[in-house]
């Protein structure tokens, strides 16, 4: 273990995709209390198992960390970090319940001199306007006089082993200059790439939310173009390859936007805009286009099967991949489900296969019984997620799964120009 670089006792509240790697990184340079309300997850982590299946047993080695659900243990922390989910409800409005629940937990054990940093993605103003008043109310302490607050967004990318916590510049912010220094020094101990000191907490909150909003809007433009190019009979990936030869053409691609970040965070910004009586148009348009893509792809498959001379009622389709992106096991807010739902609404029988997804979780979340392995004779094969295992499929593998002349739906354009024995369609 490295020598204790920082004197703070770090309390990380919420040990999921973001919180656990963060807690383990701090546990190499400080004493850490890892707190979560889910006792099943705590039990697994105590055994060196990451319930989110991103980290290995080795990542838990040489760590000075206590995994707990006990407030008494959490009370020992001096520097609290909150990394709980910030989802949206059914009306696509921010659901701050987990965040405010975690804030209340921390406030119950807050002492004079402590610092609380929020890492969850929120709209600008949430830390100071929503979280701080609750902290004051529950703790009975005064903001800035007795306790300090900061915001430092997480930028990790699930499944990405290159852009990690250590190798990505971390934005830090604080409620005053001494807090900014404290937050900055604490994070500098674990982030090799260094920290960027934002001018204020609101600036740091806004920076994170626009990173994902920018991606969402750009992908939406590509999706809209792909609907248009389909009508023109040209392939979008061909067009993007050609346009990409210009030095300043941005490399975005059409596709499904699922998961709990890019497809969710823009709604937080929209919510804030509404509070300020501003009606966002571009952001909402992006969300509309991206959320419609699953249904659009489903209809294209149905048309493709019919135009190939097969009846749609009773047709069999194989969907490869159900996770929200490639090479991860996370199925939350997967938009592949929209393709499946669309197909089923036409009476199509759908087999779903994904080597990364957990069968029980898929059944629980979506009521879908995944197949253990694909069978044969499908009317269409849909490569919905570009898992490495699917990338390496050869045309013969795909042909072996389907009827002669069946349809290959290549959502991510992986097999463009490589398939001649199947009818081919991509975004
Ligand atoms: N996953 C990512 O790649 C990623 C990247 C950047 C930012 N973010 C943001 O980070 C935040 C956390 O996301 P995540 O993916 O780690 O979530 P997650 O669902 O993986 O984990 C959240 C953890 O918090 C726990 N939790 C929930 N409510 C709690 C409470 N009141 N007290 C204590 N623990 C509680 C849950 O039991 C769970 O273990 C979100 O705001 C998300 O938008 C996530």
Explained architecture:
With 427 residues, the chain is α/β, with parallel strands linked by helices. 39% of the residues lie in helices and 14% in strands. The protein has 14 helices and 13 strands. The chain has helices at 19-26, 39-46, 71-74, 97-109, 126-139, 177-188, 201-232, 236-243, 265-275, 282-307, 336-345, 359-366, 388-391, 395-401, and strands at 9-13, 31-35, 65-68, 79-82, 115-118, 148-151, 170-172, 195-197, 316-320, 349-353, 378-383, 402-410, 423-426. The strands form three sheets. A six-stranded parallel beta sheet has the order 3-2-1-4-5-6, sandwiched between helices. The protein has a five-stranded parallel beta sheet with strand order 10-9-11-12-13. A two-stranded parallel sheet has the order 7-8. Strand 1, helix 1 (19-26) and strand 2 (31-35) form a beta-alpha-beta unit. The mean pLDDT is 96. The structure holds nicotinamide-adenine-dinucleotide. The site of nicotinamide-adenine-dinucleotide has 29 residues, from helix 4.
Q: What separation lies between the terminal Cα atoms? A: 49 Å
- Count the E strands: 13
Binned, the helix content reads: 25-40%
* CATH class value of the largest domain: Alpha Beta
Question: What is the CATH architecture descriptor of the largest domain?
Answer: 3-Layer(aba) Sandwich
Order of helices and strands: EHEHEHEHEHEEHEHHHHEHEHEHHEE
**Rg from alpha-carbon coordinates:** 24 Å
| CATH H-level homologous superfamily name of the largest domain | NAD(P)-binding Rossmann-like Domain
């Amino acid at each position: 273990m490295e020598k204790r670089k920082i004197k703070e006792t770090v309390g990380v509240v919420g040990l999921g995709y973001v919180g656990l790697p963060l807690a383990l990184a701090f546990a190499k340079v400080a004493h850490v209390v890892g707190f979560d309300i889910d006792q099943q997850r705590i039990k697994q982590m105590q055994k060196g198992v990451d319930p989110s299946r991103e980290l290995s047993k080795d990542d838990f080695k040489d760590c000075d960390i206590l995994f707990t659900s006990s407030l008494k243990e959490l009370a020992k922390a001096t520097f609290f970090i909150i990394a709980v989910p910030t989802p949206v409800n059914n009306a696509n409005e921010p659901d701050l319940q987990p965040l405010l629940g975690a804030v209340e937990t921390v406030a119950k054990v807050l002492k004079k001199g402590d610092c609380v940093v929020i890492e969850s993605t929120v709209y600008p103003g949430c830390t100071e306007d929503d979280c701080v008043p609750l902290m004051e109310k529950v703790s009975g302490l005064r903001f800035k006089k007795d306790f300090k607050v900061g915001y430092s967004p997480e930028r990790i990318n699930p499944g990405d082993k290159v852009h990690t916590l250590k190798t990505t510049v971390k934005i830090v912010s604080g409620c005053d200059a001494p807090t900014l220094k404290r937050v900055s020094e604490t994070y500098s101990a674990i982030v090799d790439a260094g920290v960027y000191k934002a001018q204020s907490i609101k600036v740091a909150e806004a920076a994170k939310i626009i990173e994902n909003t920018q991606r969402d809007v750009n992908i939406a433009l590509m999706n809209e173009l792909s609907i248009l190019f389909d009508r023109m009979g040209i392939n979008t990936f061909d067009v993007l390859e050609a346009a990409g030869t210009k030095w300043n053409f941005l490399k975005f691609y059409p596709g499904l936007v699922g998961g709990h970040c890019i497809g969710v965070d823009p709604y937080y910004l929209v919510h804030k805009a509404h509070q300020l009586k501003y009606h966002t148009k571009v952001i909402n348009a992006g969300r509309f286009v991206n959320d419609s893509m699953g249904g659009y792809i489903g209809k294209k498959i149905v048309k493709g099967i019919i135009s190939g001379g097969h009846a749609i009622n009773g047709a069999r389709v194989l969907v490869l991949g159900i996770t929200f992106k490639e090479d991860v096991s996370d199925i939350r807010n997967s938009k592949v489900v929209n393709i499946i739902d669309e197909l089923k609404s036409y009476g199509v029988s759908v087999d779903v296969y994904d080597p990364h997804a957990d069968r029980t979780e898929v059944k629980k979340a979506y009521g879908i019984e995944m197949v253990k392995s694909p069978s044969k004779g499908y009317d269409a094969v849909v490569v919905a997620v570009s898992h490495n295992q699917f990338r390496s499929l050869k045309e013969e593998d795909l042909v072996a799964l389907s009827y002669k002349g069946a349809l290959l739906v290549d959502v991510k354009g992986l097999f463009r120009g490589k398939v001649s024995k199947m009818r081919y369609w991509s975004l």
